[in-house]
Write a structure and sequence with these properties.
Distance between the termini: 41 Å
CATH topology: UDP N-Acetylglucosamine Acyltransferase, domain 1
CATH superfamily: Hexapeptide repeat proteins
Radius of gyration: 17 Å
Structural class: alpha/beta
Largest sheet: 5 strands, parallel
Low-confidence stretches: none
CATH class: Mainly Beta
Amino acid sequence: MKKNLKKIIKSSSYLNKIIYVQGIGLRVPISKLIVNYVVNFLLRQNTSSQYPVNYKTTVISGEKLILKGSKNGTLSSLIVSSGCYLQAGNGIEIDEGTIWAPNVVMVSANHDMENENKQWQSADSIKIGKHCWIGANAVILPSIVLGDNTVVGAGAVVTKSFPQGNVIIAGNPAKVIKENRNIK
């Protein structure tokens, strides 16, 4: 069985890349990777994402989703956390070590309601620093910058940037509730 599985992985450039090249096979069970790959393939979803994505997560404009650094933890979150919605129309940049819970929403572009075809409005990309933690059901809106070591509380709606980092934010709209003293 193991030999057949290794043969299948090596024959698929996608699976070979995510398991051997990116080395996430050590952090995420291979069964999870294969289920995500098969379901995404069958449902023809998340095809523009250059990264493996949980099959219950939706990525729009995946070619503009950028995971920086070593991707430690960040890529695993994308694979494991389900129900997320990442709309990267204007780009989303996430630095290394950032993790998020299920049902996180990141929307980098709004629709122009005055335009006849309702195209996306141009805006700066969402930028999330190193070692951030984004709680379940959090919403991050266009042009937001979160500095390193920012914790976003569950259910928070982030409508303004917190570039200074090292803070814990929560609420709707999100505001600083305390400094983050648990810094690496």
